[in-house]
Amino acid sequence: MKKSALILGVIAFVVALGGTIITPFCTPCLAIFVGAFAGYLAGVFDKPVEKSVAVKSGAFAGLLAGIGAVLGQIVGAVINGASVGPEGAMQIMRQLGLSGGAGDVSIVYWTSLVVSTACFAILNLGLMAGMGALGGLLWNQFNNKSVPPPVAPASPAQ
To answer: What is the predicted pLDDT for the residue at 110?
Structure first.
C-alpha cells in the first residue's frame, strides 16, 4: 500500500500540477482515475486475502496519493496566480466587455484562487480515497476468486 501510495502520489503531484496550471476544474476527473489506479495497485503490491482489507488498503492508498495531488494543486495555483495575476484577469474581463475596479478584481482574484484551490483539494482527497476503495475492491474481485470448499465424497449406500 505504501509503495502504490508513493508511486501514485508522485504521479498525482505531476498530473494535478499540470491540470491546475490550465484550470482547477480538470483535477476532479484526474483524481477519479489516479485514485482508482492507486487502490488497484495497492492490491497488486499487498495481495490482501480478505475483501475488507483490500478495500481499506485501496482507500488508504488513494488518500495518501491524494496528498500528492493536493501539493500539486497548491504549486499549480501559485504558478497560475503568478502567470495570470489580477492584471491578466482584468485584461480578460475587458476583452469580454466587463468592467470593474482594479482593487475589486485583485481582491476577488486572490480570494477565488485560494478558495477554489482549497475546495478542489478537499473534493479530490475524497474522490481519490473513494476511488481507491473501488480500485481495491476491483482488484479483489478480479484476483481473489474464492474457491468453493471441496465436496465430501458420498458414502456408499448400505
So the answer is: 87
